[in-house]
Design goal:
Blueprint: E1 4-6, E2 19-21, E3 30-34, H1 39-59, E4 63-68, E5 71-77, H2 83-88, H3 99-109, H4 112-115, E6 118-122, H5 128-135, E7 139-144, H6 149-156, E8 164-168, E9 177-182, E10 185-190, H7 213-227, E11 233-237, E12 242-247, H8 252-268, H9 272-275, H10 285-295, H11 301-304, H12 322-329, E13 335-339, H13 347-353, E14 357-362, H14 369-379, E15 382-385
Parallel strand pairs: 6-7, 7-8, 13-14, 14-15
Antiparallel strand pairs: 1-2, 3-8, 4-5, 4-6, 9-10, 11-12, 11-13
Helix pairs in contact: 1-7, 3-5, 5-6, 8-13, 13-14
Length: 393
């Protein structure tokens, strides 16, 4: 470890000089084991590390996140994968997966389009199972508290030996007050050390107050994910993972729609029609992801036109009609949703309900809380008010 690490440049190539360092002169809590991480890499790494550390502490399960542009594209804990999830995450050929590998498969698989070229954070020592999964994905780097020797050697082969591998001191405790400079002016605030656990579900104003343990886990995952997502932000979760994250939107309904569309796409990928797409064996995972994204969307003719499909599929797939998609989406139930600030209008609830949301956690405190509660009651949704905002910038 050292007191500073020189970087190639800042956010953009014209922003020089660039480095990370400790103002107090102490050593940095990170060691670069391979590669040369950049400014944004470290931003993703440090935010991602905090997220997975908190997920592990809150759930007791190994956790992983897939970061892009200082917001998570996915976050998850290490619950076993169903055969369907293994298939849509392209890991069904990897044999038995460790809990940590399951966590990363879920984090990467939630929104594979956004996770392309991600920076990975792992809560536990990276094992061989997880390293083999990371090895074949397009990724910029990984941060973890340690690496099994064989796992480290596997990762070092990525990107012609230049893959960024960072080891984090898991015992590092940051100062309680943090600073950053903007336009030559220093901002200072207390760190957001809010602990998110089951105690936050004490205020449930809706008629339906039944909150199962699995829903509590998903809601906790959504809130911890939101804590490190650029605001405004909304997170849909199911089965121990985020399935749709809407980040950085100026309007909350746009967050809800964006995250809901991603959650819908996650579910549509599990439909028999998508699972049976006859891809040519030469089509790689990233190109399959792109093709699926088009196939389930409004621009499906971009892959089904007569001059397009022969380069992707062995036979021409049938159109996934709007009626078929609507019927399949209706089967997605028991989804949880978190919001980093209050919902100002009931339209957010209506949009969430269309994506199978049954459990919601949000700060509350809007002058229209009654309208939001009424919308939840109309659909039998359970909603908890935390009184806690989770903006992150």
């Amino acid at each position: 470890m050292s007191n500073e690490i020189q970087l190639k440049y800042g956010c953009n190539p014209n922003q020089k000089p660039s480095r990370i360092f400790k103002k107090d002169g102490e050593e940095l809590p990170v060691t670069v084991l391979n590669g040369k991480p950049g400014y944004i890499n470290f931003m993703d790494a440090f935010n991602g590390w905090q997220l997975v550390r908190e997920l592990k502490k809150a759930t007791g399960l190994p956790a992983a996140t897939s970061f892009k542009h200082v917001s998570p594209a996915g976050a998850a804990v290490g619950l076993p994968l169903t055969d369907t999830l293994k298939k849509i995450y392209w890991v069904d050929d990897l044999g038995e997966l460790s809990p940590l590998a399951c966590a990363y498969a879920r984090a990467r698989g939630a929104d594979r389009m956004s996770s392309f070229g991600d920076f990975i954070a792992l809560s536990d020592v990276c094992d061989v199972s997880t390293a083999n999964m990371i090895k074949r994905e397009v990724s910029d780097g990984v941060i973890a508290p340690g690496y099994e020797p064989e796992a480290l050697e596997i990762l070092k082969t990525k990107k012609k030996g230049n893959y960024n591998i960072i080891q984090m001191d898991e015992n590092y405790v940051p100062a309680p007050v943090e600073q950053k400079d903007v336009f030559g002016i220093t901002f200072e605030q207390g760190r957001n050390e809010l602990v998110i656990d089951e105690t936050i579900f004490g205020n449930i104003p809706t008629k339906n107050k039944e909150l199962p343990e699995l829903a509590k886990i998903d809601l906790i995952i959504s809130l911890i994910t939101l804590k490190y997502t650029q605001s405004n932000s909304v997170c849909y979760c199911k089965g121990g993972q985020a399935i749709g994250i809407g980040a950085g939107q100026q309007s909350r309904i746009h967050c809800t729609r964006l995250a809901g569309t991603k959650a819908d796409n996650w579910w549509l990928r599990q439909s028999p029609k998508v699972l049976s797409l006859p891809f040519l064996p030469t089509i790689g995972r990233a190109d399959r992801d792109n093709a699926i994204d088009l196939y389930i969307g409004e621009d499906y003719m971009d892959v089904l036109a007569d001059d397009k499909w022969p380069a992707i599929f062995s036979t021409k797939p049938e159109v996934f009609t709007a009626e078929e998609k609507k019927a399949w989406l209706a089967k997605n139930t028991d989804v949880s949703l978190g919001s980093d600030a209050f919902f100002p209008f009931g339209d957010n609830i209506e949009r969430a309900f269309r994506s199978g949301v049954k459990y919601i956690v949000q700060p509350g405190g809007s002058i229209r809380d009654d309208n939001v509660i009424e919308a939840c009651d109309a659909h039998g949704i359970v909603m908890a008010f935390t009184g806690i905002r989770l903006f992150h910038h």
